[in-house]
Write a structure and sequence with these properties.
Shape: globular
Structural class: alpha/beta
Order of helices and strands: EEHEHHEEEHEHEEHEHEHEHEH
Strand order of the largest sheet: 1-2-3-4-7-10-11-12-13
CATH class: Alpha Beta
């Protein structure tokens, strides 16, 4: 999401109808970018024992898989298999459009890119369980973004689904049982004019168009919330009211369509210290779950910012694994 540097996903082990009342332990997806101590995650399990014990899936980024060596992938796949951890992939599934629209914009890659990613995983012996598409509706249709190469494609819903059809086919050819999900944004029209009114109706139409054109159903939706614009208190209030109402409706929509829903929890772009960034992320999941009682199937801890800088150890308040452990402990305390 938005060139995320890292992500931690915590997925509740409940179907859509039971998401509001958690009665079972959560599944945990954990992801970290190939920087600082990334490979230590697979070499030093003693530095994150509590987090590792609760992890259900580790999410790799497709850009990492594309660049990685066969040795790296084999090491990661072997570690995950040894510890009984499933594999998820965050994927840039859109192909560049006419006149190479989308080049340099998040979510787009040249033809053949994702096929190479899937083939490398298969060659490494990986079992790919989940694929999370990187904001295709937002960057492929709604957002009017520019890059030094041009701009986003602004496809129709039908064109967008047709664009994704080849990447979906390449995935299912090698991994027919992989579940496909979507990561999309929630942001107030007050801070981004590209956000349409009736956004969730657009999402519902998108779900139908995707299934019609690809023959596959979107199984989960993870929401990337623009929490606060940090411009002025009045805009903060407008934005907060918007995302609160939209999240509540999104959870209801997910249950209606039997789609698992989740939220990305993160810190602020202005945070310069990783511990402060973690503190903001913790405050947000507590506000949503404890105060607003919005109980989704997934809690997502992610950043495309500078922080957190390291994954380990889980005892350090400035690391991603600390954030994982904090959420898991709070969650377990709730469901006892």
């Amino acid at each position: 999401m938005r060139m995320k540097m890292l992500a931690l996903l915590v997925t509740v082990g409940l179907g859509p109808a039971g998401a509001a009342n958690r009665t079972s332990a959560a599944d945990v997806w954990f992801s970290f970018p190939p920087k600082t101590d990334f490979m230590d995650l697979f070499r030093k399990p003693d530095q994150w024992p509590a987090s590792l014990q609760g992890i259900d899936a580790f999410m790799l980024q497709s850009s990492f898989v594309y660049r990685s060596s066969d040795k790296q992938l084999a090491e990661i796949v072997g570690f995950l298999r040894k510890h009984g951890v499933k594999l998820a992939l965050e994927a840039q599934m859109m192909r560049l459009g006419p006149n190479r629209c989308g080049q340099g914009i998040e979510g787009y890659k040249p033809p053949g890119y994702m096929r190479t990613v899937f083939q490398k995983l298969k060659a490494a012996g990986a079992d790919l369980d989940f694929v999370a598409m990187d904001e295709p509706l937002w960057f492929g249709r709604l957002a009017k973004r520019k890059s030094r190469f041009g701009g986003s494609c602004q496809f129709s819903l039908l064109e967008l689904a047709q664009n994704l059809r080849q990447s979906v086919s390449e995935l299912l050819e090698l991994y027919p049982r992989a579940e496909i999900g979507d990561e999309e944004t929630i942001r107030s029209p007050a801070i981004d004019r590209d956000m349409p009114s009736g956004y969730l109706f657009e999402i519902e139409k998108w779900l139908a168009a995707f299934e019609q054109e690809t023959g596959s159903k979107i199984r989960f939706l993870h929401w990337d919330v623009a929490w606060f614009p940090a411009k002025n208190s009045e805009m903060d209030k407008l934005n907060s009211n918007y995302w609160t109402a939209t999240l509540e409706s999104a959870v209801t929509m997910g249950r209606t369509h039997e789609i698992r829903t989740g939220i990305f929890y993160d810190g602020d772009p202005g945070d310069v210290a990783s511990a402060a960034w973690n503190a903001h992320a913790i405050a947000r999941y507590k506000a949503v779950e404890d105060e607003l009682h919005i109980m989704t199937d997934t809690a997502v801890f992610a950043t495309w910012m500078h922080c957190p800088e390291r994954a380990l150890p889980e005892s350090d308040p400035a690391t991603l694994s600390y954030l994982a452990r904090s959420y898991i402990r709070d969650r377990d305390g709730r469901i006892r």
